[in-house]
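Try it yourself: sequence plus adenosine monophosphate, in.
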Amino acid sequence: MRLLDSKLVWRFPSVSSEKMRVFSLESVIEEFEALTNDAGRLQTESLRKILEQNGEAEYLRNLGLGGRTDPESFRACVPLVTHRDLEPYIQRIADGDTSVLTGKPITSISLSSGTTQGKPKFLPFNDELVQSTMQIYRTSFAFRNREYPIGDGKALQFIYSSRQVKTKGGLIATTATTNVYRSEQFKRTMKDIQSQCTSPDEVIFGPDFRQSLYCHLLCGLIYSNEVQIISSTFAHSIVHAFRTLEQVWEELCIDIREGVLSSRITVPSIRSAVSKLLIPNPSLADSIYNKCVRLSNWYGVIPELWPNAKYVYGIMTGSMEPYLKKLRHYAGSLPLMSADYGSSEGWIGANVNPSLIPELATFAVLPNIGYFEFIPLEKPEEQELENIASTIHYIESEPVGLTEVEVGKEYEIIVTNFAGLYRYRLGDVVRVAGFHNSTPELQFVCRRSLVLSINIDKNTEKDLQLAVEEAAKLLAAEKLEVVDFTSHVDTSTEPGHYVIFWELSSDTTEEVLRSCCNCLDLAFVDAGYIGSRKVGTIGPLELRVVRKKTFERILEHFLGLGAAMSQFKTPRFVSLSNSKVLQILCRNVTRCYFSTAYDI
Ligand code: AMP
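Structure, out:
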């Protein structure tokens, strides 16, 4: 893709950088329109390029493509795979083998967040993935900027790198976001298209996320008048940051007043970088202090402390939706804009309709960053349920191409990309909301894996989220909220039953919690669940309330395993195999209730 910014600034030095940005962003939009007008041809072209570049890789050679690069031969020769199938190949790459999955050697390994399966997955990463990341960032930024233009200023970005380790073969293994932040292209693109981060690199790359978070807040406040965007990769990090602000704001004010960094920051590189930005500023400290004191329950803290911020930005869809209520509370009048759709495996689509509320956000697939197929998924009819194995939630048909998907239907995405994944099942379910030119605009539905299933019942993380939302309405009257939640299937007793773990913002009465428990039980509307509950083959749902900060301990547990704060997603289901997380939850249970909703 032709990306113009730096060249144009050089060619037209008299044009202000703001005008320059608008001008070059319009050309990004033009490029996007051209790409999406020609999605079908570009898909065939992308596949050809991928297969030509990687034809010599062992994996492709063994599949007998014999140099053919057309979609029909590709589909006939290359099987659909899951991560488990590719694991041995990726492990060999990590151990130092080359030409296993790609023609050019893989340059690093990405670690997925690991919060879905309980342990991080290894995935190949290379420059092509950085390029597609930048293309997605530029595209959605160009559309955002058209509706919510920003001038020259700064961005308060709650971004964090994760630990980097060397594999046996000498490759760096770290989270995909860290791989992106490390790249020169990322720094250039951020400077070109977006505002500069308020925090120095030492904060982003610091070894202790708590210290980094404190300094992100501090640097954001130092530059409070210049900040135009508040963002993070996933919305969870923004909510987490503002929950922390509620606790440390007075300390932050002291630091700004005295120009001396809190003793809680002990990492020398962070101390030194942030101390350079800190000069005694009593008037700023007073103004922040007074604003914080005046706020009612922190409502609208973002526009209050960052008066020139234009919007809040981050992934707010899928497993991030439960944090939207709190995010709206902090954002007050500021618009929330949901970021793009991707994964450690690679990017899928850009949000080019920024004014849609996060619940309706869509992602236009970029047809030149990979080759995409879609497995049509249909829910079985109620009468078919009993004859279908309990693990089957959807009836699948043959995969279709990018331009063959139908509006309103649900699909699982299959990715073929420039980093060695061929017909890889991503495990996400999406719905086609419409088309942008000839490329589909996708809505994220959920991870495909079932979270709750005992016999014929089938509930996904989306079903769980909806049930929790329904029950949480009973808390709203009490001015309480669910801070976070997860689930478990307890089969240690006969019959097995669902367990929902809740962390609440404060305590409430037994009566309220009993009603919440009954409400949760009734809110799982899957026919298999209702049927099983009625005949007693699934026992009463159990609601376990956990102590405050329990979910923070779970976050710390995952960070200890190498996950990055930037990519963290609370696991919505905890199985027995994830014994450490289950232990953290069970140790912190303060109260538990069994539903009586189906009692006769
Ligand atoms: P990871 O590679 O561990 O960071 O996780 C990638 C997964 O995060 C994807 O497969 C999706 O399930 C989820 N995800 C990424 N972007 C979005 C988005 N915009 N909306 C909803 N879920 C997303």
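One thing you can check immediately is this: Residues 112-113, 315, 317-318, 341-344, 426, 428, 444, 447, 567 surround adenosine monophosphate (CB under 6 Å).
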